[in-house]
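Q: My labmate handed me this sequence with no annotations at all. I'd like to see what the chain might look like in three dimensions before we decide whether it's worth expressing. Could you predict it?
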Amino acid sequence: MNNANFVDLLTQQFGGQAAEMIGQQLGIDKSAAQLALSQFLPIFTTALANNASQEEGAQALYNAVEKDHDGSVLENMIGFLGNFSQGPGMGIMGHVFGGQINQVADFISSNTGLDKQTTQSIMQIAAPLAMGMLGKEQRSQGLNAQGLAQLLNTSVQDVKQTDPKNMGLIGKLLDRNNDGNVMDDVAAMGMSLLRNWMNGRK
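A: Here is what I predict for the chain of 202 residues:
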């Protein structure tokens, strides 16, 4: 399992029934939920990998996963979805994205046609579930902080090889200092990402 791609694992976790349940909770159709998830999950994974690229960030992520994210949230999706607004989603995104939460939400909203509030709700739902999946991987592989960082970095690099254009846009989104407008480049990104995300996983 050491060569598992974390974005791939998230794709499998959020496909099908999970996307349908999230859509029902938010009053949107399954395909809209899938489209938003197909964009958020690689952005989230890239941000985690960026944060974990420094030793201090990797240790902080490991501590968070070890303490708070054992994967049990994945076993109680109905309970979690019914109370997601009280969950840890916003706190997780604050740690992962810093002051860029609104930029990420705007980015996804502009690609999906979903309003920003719905987009932020999807992010708030997906972040704890993704961290739960990371916790499951950390435990099943026995990863230390360095191993966790390597899993994330390898996964991001792997996706960059298969989808360099879209991952390049994600890199710009997370790296920019408000001096450029990455929104100019995203017009065709949405459906392209969804096709890649769903390829072979229907």
